Amino acid sequence: MDENEKLLTIGQFAALHGINKKTLMWYDETGLFQPAIINPDNGYRCYTYRQSPILETILLLRELDVSVSDIRAFMENRSAKNLKTLLEEKIAQLDNNIMHLQAVRKTVCSHHQNMVTLLTMDLSEINVIEKEEQCLVTVDIDKDTTFEKEVELITAETAKYRLGRLHDASYGSMIPVTSLQNGDFENYTGLFIEIPFLVQNRELANQFPDNQKNGLHIQPKGRYLRAFHKGNLSSLPLRYQEILEYTKRHGLTLCGCSYEKGINESVAMHIDDYIIQIEIPILG
Q: How many other C-beta atoms lie within 10 A of the C-beta of residue 89?
């Protein structure tokens, strides 16, 4: 007898494919996958090795969350064309899932780095760091923009990029360096959103339709002055004055905008514990 035609018990066939024999029984009962024969004397289900590729295809489709009804329809009309169509749909879904997981990982890593910063860095220090180019989503605001309007703008942008949850992105505000130098510490002109799959991926950002590129902002590569402010926002101007004095002492020229981002909202118990990270590009 051909080895492929030798009969295997349901237990042997299930073990061969790393599944429970109850799964095979359920497949049989639902008409999805039936044994080669059923022993007329004892009712035992028996399978042949030749059935293995078909079962593995079913198991793969189930792992890809293809519905039982769709698998049954495929089984009733198996063809290369139909399997190709099923797999193409699932490949597209997997690509979306991978992108989402990569975005979540970037977000988790960002939160983790924030906690490392909180635990290891002297928040009173002012440092010069190197940053890679980042692609941010921005919305324009001014002094007359209400908090409710800001929420509306942020909500619209996150919906545009299909973010399911607020934790899928980081948020901050932007104030021009010229305003800081003129002593205008309230002239915020934009809110920015760090969407993980756009950050450090300008090429991907350029693939979006024109109506989605309108709100994109390139945070340039180069040297940045980084400082932190802890406490009530009313004392933030004092921190900026310290930053401006620091730049004068060290002969640094700031440019562009200051990017402010809270880094400990999830663990700050009181407003006096709130910490803002400040990053400002250095010219040259």
A: 13
